[in-house]
Design goal:
Elements: E1 3-7, E2 18-25, E3 31-32, H1 37-43, H2 47-54, E4 63-67, E5 76-84, H3 93-104, E6 112-116, H4 122-135, E7 153-157, H5 164-188, H6 196-209, E8 215-220, H7 222-228, H8 231-237, E9 245-251, E10 259-264, E11 266-270, H9 279-282, H10 290-305, E12 310-320, E13 332-334, E14 340-342, H11 349-363, E15 368-372, H12 377-383, H13 394-401
Parallel strand pairs: 1-7, 2-5, 2-6, 6-7, 10-12, 10-15, 11-12
Antiparallel strand pairs: 2-3, 4-5, 8-9, 9-12, 13-14
């Protein structure tokens, strides 16, 4: 278990196995980023030649490990690129977040790390914490033998360390990262270990471990789905020996004036059905439930943080498999609410399960519905695998992006 602290301190005198400093690009060459000035000063005239000899440019994504040989208290220095420094000498929170993520992946087996990255205010403290927490994630659930030990202590060095806003920023980052890691673990699990029923059980188990229950969890099995007429979820799941589920989560804080519905696609494995996928395309289809994992994690994070917004989340869970019972191209399904749909491509299963869940969400008195899914390959073709597509009305899309 890694402990995170926020404190004032000079990075050149901090006792840690590794001290992390940012390097920024400028027209005149690489310079130390805000937060690491004391380290550059400790090296004196040797700092610029050190950067030059290593080939450091300050480009985002760079990382260099350097033994300090006593120049500073920590025995090892990690230099990470933060990208271009603006004309006023500032960096964006996103630049800081990405640099902290790079740092997390380059601290090796260090037991203690001090982060001397830009952390002048609560926003930057949050960025450093978000980056290091999420950047250091690894999935070890399916590995045998000895597992790499995580860093024991991480200190974020900041002049704003004693400000309440900064303290809250670090606490928020830890909550969000914890639930995010849970979602990532689920996405990484092999499909035989996360059947629709297993997924539902894991969601229920989270609420069972909470000391103060704030989230109400309801699970509908295949029989209950038939009773309410959820033909999309049932149609996709009918080809599998593992029946589908629908998980609904409700978070109702006192005084909430807004209500948001979250809907996430939960195809625990997608073979494509009779419109079968090519073999190479099936390798990552255990990940087709990432949308459901995201909305579940988000709901629990919002509840733990006490955000004053009511949330209803829907996670339709099914396996899209082939058998004598599987839905065929040309079949007609009756969806939740009575609308009929002709299935022309059984690999378009996501919109079928989502149609049921979205219809349920639309029945509730909500201010907005946010749907998250690994829905369509052309989005990756258009935007690549590091950018998500966002569609909707202008007002809601702007709110999500902000």
């Amino acid at each position: 278990m890694t402990s995170y602290t926020l404190r004032k301190g000079n990075p050149d005198k901090t006792r840690a196995d590794i001290v992390v400093v940012g390097v920024a690009r400028t027209a005149k060459g690489p310079v130390v980023a805000p937060g690491g000035e004391a380290v550059a000063k400790a090296y004196g005239r040797k700092f610029s030649p050190l950067l030059a000899s290593l080939g450091v440019t300050g480009k985002a994504g760079e990382a260099f490990r350097v033994p300090t040989s006593g120049a500073v208290t920590s025995p090892m220095l990690v230099l990470v690129g933060v990208g271009d420094l603006s004309t006023d000498g500032s960096l964006t929170a996103e630049q800081v977040r990405r640099a902290a993520g790079v740092a997390a992946r380059n601290v090796g087996n260090a037991a203690s790390v001090a982060l001397a990255l830009p952390a002048a205010d609560a926003d930057q403290v949050r960025a450093v914490a978000d980056g290091f927490l999420t950047g250091g994630y690894t999935f070890t659930g399916s590995k045998s033998g000895a597992k790499k030990k995580p860093v024991s202590e991480v200190a974020i060095l900041s002049e704003a360390a004693r400000q309440q806003a900064s303290i809250e920023a670090l606490a928020t980052a830890q909550v969000v990262a914890g639930h995010s890691d849970t979602a990532r673990d689920w996405v990484n699990l092999p499909a035989n270990q996360l059947l629709p029923s297993d997924f539902a059980d894991r969601v229920v188990a989270i609420e069972g471990k909470r000391k103060k229950p704030k989230v109400t969890v309801t699970v509908l099995d295949e029989h209950e789905l038939a009773e309410i007429g959820a033909g999309g979820i049932l149609g996709v799941g009918m080809g599998s020996d593992n029946p589908p589920r629908l998980v609904r989560l409700e978070y109702r804080p006192e005084g909430a004036e807004r209500h948001v519905a979250l809907v996430g696609k939960g195809i625990t494995y997608d073979s494509g059905g009779y419109t079968i996928k090519p073999g190479n395309s099936m390798q990552t289809m255990k990940c087709d439930m990432a949308g459901a994992a995201a909305v579940v994690a988000a709901t629990y994070a919002l509840a733990e943080l006490g955000v004053p917004v009511a949330v209803t989340a829907y996670a339709p869970l099914a396996e899209n498999m082939i058998s004598g019972r599987a839905v065929r191209p040309g079949d007609v399904l009756t969806m939740y609410g009575g609308k009929t749909v002709e299935v022309l491509n059984t690999d378009a299963e996501g919109r079928l399960v989502l149609a049921d869940a979205l219809a349920m969400a639309a029945e509730t008195d909500v201010d907005a519905i946010v749907e998250i899914s690994t829905l369509t390959g052309p989005c990756v073709v258009a935007l690549g695998d590091r950018v998500a597509g966002v569609f909707g009305d202008d007002e809601t899309v702007a709110a999500v992006q902000s």
